[in-house]
Amino acid sequence: MSQRGREGIGVNQLQSGLDYPLVASGDTDPAIRNLIADFYFEYDDDAARPATHPLRIKYLYNVGCVDNALPAGGPLPLNDADIVLVGDDGRVVFDTITDGATVELSNWGNDYIIYTWKTPNAVCRLVAHTTWPDNDDEKKQYNKHIAPTNAVLDERAVYRMPRRLRTIKVRNANVTSPAFAGRVKLVNGYNTEITAAAATTQDFRLDTQITVAGAPGSGRGAYANCDDVDAAKSILKINGLSPTTTGDFLLSAASCLWSRRPTTYSAGVVTPSTTAQQQIGADCVPCCSCEEYVSTAKYMNNTALRYSLIGNRSENIRTLHEDNIARWLDQRACSVLRPLRLLLVPQRCPYIDVVLMVCNPCDTCLGASTLNVEFSIAVAGVTATLECGYTAMFAPGINGSPVGIGAAPGGLGYSASFPQIAPGESAYVQFRLKFLESDTTQNPPYRRPRGPYPITGILTGTMNSGGTPLMNNCGNEAAVPASAEATQTLYCNAAGNTEAPC
């Protein structure tokens, strides 16, 4: 387990939602999914039979840690870790078991391990996860021998090397040297001097002209016997090749290369260069055909459209998130200015349920307080009494417990004590009132109200410590005593029964 377990790298950044370097995440084989953190494969394609993309992983050995049997029909592992890549047609493109690949393993911190395979024609690197995040419940372990049913590689993880000069051979008469690869150094010989011009770029290719000049004493100097007048020595061979019967050496080129004598053209007359130097060049066509450029352009356009879609979705999510933040800030500002709530819910005549609520939208605790509600009725002679059995408090740690409700003289004022409330918490008390209308002709001298009566309540609060008013705006600048007001109608008909529909 690690805080960085299964954290994305490279293209697959954290929270990107990608399964890179694999594609088609919904179909990716669970036997390999989330095992590979990054992948890179570069190769020289077979010109006679190029690989068919997309490539996929057919076998992956010794990257997991759980012992299991080899896949049916699969090859035997050879190295500390092995991988086999095939094309879309099933033909093997890279095989570390049969291609004589070298393998290197190196730890990258505590969360990754890097596998590197190299052959003369390809390099493959795989970065595997080694840890899971702390909050992952499964923490899946992978088999050592995996033959995934679907592990298609993203094209961004695969690079087909362009055609290029990789080796050269030197022929001396009928003798040809072995192929030289890597860095080849051209040096001056006797009576020969090689001069390189400044490197230029043409059609995205580095172009450097080299001049080979033959002058007595140039390069490594004259042969040791050049000053021997008694021995009139001549150059008899160049690189083991003899001249013609007239003593001339003929230079020719093949394929798209050319060799010719430099000339000047003026007034319709072609004049050979007076220095008689030989010029060598090439008229080779581009290594990629027009169809390949078109395919590349279409692929780039498709990739751009995919990223454009991702960008539009991300922008919409960002806009929605910003709207949510603005709405939350507005609601918090409203809550900061209105820490008290008063709810009146008419019941059957002559009852009304009352809810006194206090919220704490501030960053500090709200101390113990007392909420007071005063009722006013447009019709004289109507009073209220507390109905027993309907009183309860709901607060953090208190779930519907009965509480005492204080009543002021006259039957229109009530109060309730509240405990300390933590930031972001709230509490409320509910109780029921019964409204009666005075009638001295009745015994007892009260009866249900007759006709609908609007009832208005005003809620205020007082801190138990010090007796100061409960303030809005968290007591900051411009704070005033908090209050809340509500009006409801008690729906009674002329007979004193409930008028409102059920």
Structural notes for this entry:
The protein is 10% helix and 37% strand. With 502 residues, the protein is mostly beta strands. It has four domains: 36-161, no CATH class; 167-250, no CATH class; 288-336; 338-490, Immunoglobulins (Immunoglobulin-like). Strands 22, 23, 25, 26, 29 and 30 form a six-stranded antiparallel beta sheet that branches. Strands 5-6-7-1-9 form a five-stranded mixed beta sheet, with no helix packed on it. A five-stranded antiparallel beta sheet has the order 27-28-24-31-32, with no helix packed on it. β27 and β28 form a beta hairpin. The protein is elongated and about 155 Å long. The two termini are 60 Å apart.
Task: Describe the secondary structure blueprint for this structure.
Layout: E1 36-44, E2 56-61, E3 82-86, E4 92-95, E5 102-108, E6 112-119, E7 122-129, E8 145-146, E9 158-161, E10 167-168, E11 171-172, E12 175-176, E13 180-181, E14 190-196, E15 200-202, E16 205-207, E17 210-219, E18 257-260, E19 263-266, E20 269-272, E21 279-282, H1 290-337, E22 340-346, E23 351-359, E24 369-377, E25 382-395, E26 398-401, E27 406-407, E28 413-418, E29 426-438, E30 446-447, E31 453-463, E32 483-490
Parallel strand pairs: 1-9
Antiparallel strand pairs: 1-7, 2-3, 2-8, 3-4, 5-6, 6-7, 10-13, 11-12, 14-17, 15-16, 18-21, 19-20, 22-23, 23-29, 24-28, 24-31, 25-26, 25-29, 27-28, 29-30, 31-32
State the main characteristics.
1 helix, 37% strand, 502 residues, 4 domains, single chain, mainly beta, 6-stranded antiparallel beta sheet, 5-stranded mixed beta sheet, elongated
